[in-house]
Structure formats: structure tokens, C-alpha cells
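quick one before i forget lol
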Amino acid sequence: MIEGPRAVREQEFDSLIQLVNRVFRSEGGNMQTEYPQLFNAENLGNLLVMVDDGRVISHIGLLFRDVTIYGCRLTVGCIGAVATDKEYRGRGLASKLLFDAFARIEEAGGSLILISGGRGLYRRNACVPVLRSMYFEISRSFADKNADSELTLKSFDSSEIATVSALYRREPVRFLRPVEDYRYFLDSGVVMSHPSDLWLIKRGSRVVAYVVVQKGGTASTAPQIVEYAGDRRAIVQSLAMLIDHSGGTDSLNLFVPVADEPFCWQLQDLDLTGVKREGWTVRIQNFEQFLQSMRPYFAEILGTSLAQSVTVEDSDSDITFFVGKEQLTLSRDDATALVFGTADNRERQILEEHKGTIAETLGELFPIPAPWYGLNYV
């Protein structure tokens, strides 16, 4: 008899790791060592499973973290490592686990869900691919042209956690990242499923920035910067060194989170052209709670009185926004696209289809940037 959804039991943990390794690491690797932030004893209660005769046959991993978006704090549930054994697929087991995860996230006070995938299971359940980054290809010639010989690189180690954390804490849209998350990276050396390095960028004795670089190593696989913080000018000036340290390629790719528009402007002024990139999927689990959390940001744009008049009703399939007495009803997918924006500018189309003061007001508030994973990817 199949049990679940429920949290994995300690004696079932090895069976769980065997399942996710069969599904995701059939050619080698170990999900437990690559994602210690997810697969650890303290997080067993958030590893949701279906079990048949003591064997884990389906799994959804859940990790809770807080994020800040322009000073507004939200609890998010990060979902990853979603896997079902081949012989049990097509029975709706993953759907049961997903609905259980949604409920647990809301019960824990989470209003936002980040999912590291875009499969139909998520899309059918109001998980929307939203605009998360601009993607820039960096050539060797560009990197050499902008290099600064006074900069040096230093490999990250545990003695520099406080330094890196201090730089990251200055970012306006970020995870509220405990020290343990940096230690998890040092243990795994993996970010977003790829072996990665974290480099400190120094000017003299001062660390002015850092970058997290997924390793490349072949002509067809350029290294990729998937997280950074600190002095953007120094990041640009260190690109040539980063290419040198990556080895095997003559280029590098850079993901700039959509929140960092000034860095995009800087790169465009240097004649680079970015491409909009969707990043996995997002679900707003509780629209009312999400908007309430963002209200201080709304007040900065609209003023306190008008910001208080922006409310929402969540009827599961539809979301109705109110500004005073005006209202606008959208599907849950379109409401999420409006809030966070999409690579094809769906949010603009939505507002163009609905005229009036409410469309103008919502257009002032949205889109807002969705958090970028970086080291917190699961």
C-alpha cells in the first residue's frame, strides 16, 4: 500500500537519496553531496515523499528561506529535486506531493514559491515562468579591453564568509541567507547543478566584490557568472582574469538579475547587448499576504493612503485586484505575470487590455523583481 504524502522518515532517507540519484544523476554524481542545504537531518520534515513497502517512490524537496524585496520581507518555499520512480509515473503521485507542499508552505506563513523547473505539472498549477535575469555573452576581446591590472582574485574559504555575506547583504533583492548556506556551498562546490567557484575580487587588500562562476571548460561550454555582489565596475574589470582561471574557453556568460537594472545600463554603455531570460517558475501562494508584505514598497511609490487602497481577493483560480472602488480580475497565471513580469512583456499586454485608473496604478507598482537563487538554488 502506498503511503503519503508525508515527510520522509530517518530510516527511509537512504532510499530517498537512491531515488533522486537514479532520476537526476544516472551518469554519476550524488544529490546529497551536491545539495546539502536540502538533504540534511535538520530538513527531514520538509522532504515530502510517497512510500511503497518502505521504499521511497516519489519525492518533492522543500526548503524555507526568507527574502527581502526592496526592504519588504517574505517567507518563500523553494521546491526542487522533484522525482518519481519510472514504474510509478502517471499515477498522480507528484501532483499529490505538490499540493501537499503548497499547503505546508502556506501553513508556515509562506506567500511565495520558487520552483527550479518548468514542467507541465507546475504550469498546470499556476506556477509561471517569470523574468528573472538578463543574459550577457562576454568575449575575450571585451574582457581584455576592460581589464584592470590592479585587481586580483582570491579563492573563497571559510575565513571569508563574513566578508562575502556583508557584500551580499547590500543587495536590494536577495535571500536572507544564514551563515550555514555559505558553508553548504563550501561543502558541495556546486551551484545550480554545476561545479562552481566563488572568487573574491580585491583591490589592494580590500575585497570590493565577489562572483560565483559555474565552471565551463570546453569550447561549447563557457563558464557562467550566476551570482555576484559588490562593485560592478570591478566585476567588469576582472572578467579577463575569470576567463583565465576558468580554462578551456575564450568567453564567459553573465546573468544579471532583473533587479540590477543599473548594471545592465552599465554593460549596455559598454556596447554589450543583453537577452531577457526566464528563470524557472514562480507561484504566489497567498496573494493577500504577498501584497500585505509588499505594502511598504507600494507606499514609497503611491503614498500611504493610496497604497492602503490596493487590495486583492484570491479565489484560487482567479485573482481580483482593487484600487479604491475599481477592480480588475485576472487568471492566477496572468496575475502572477503582472506582478513579476515575463520575458515577452505579458504584463504590458495585460494592462493595455484593461484601461482606467486601476491599470495605471498597477502599472506603477508592477512588475517587481522576483528573487534570484544564486547559492540558494535547490
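fyi DSSP finds 15 helices and 18 strands in the chain.
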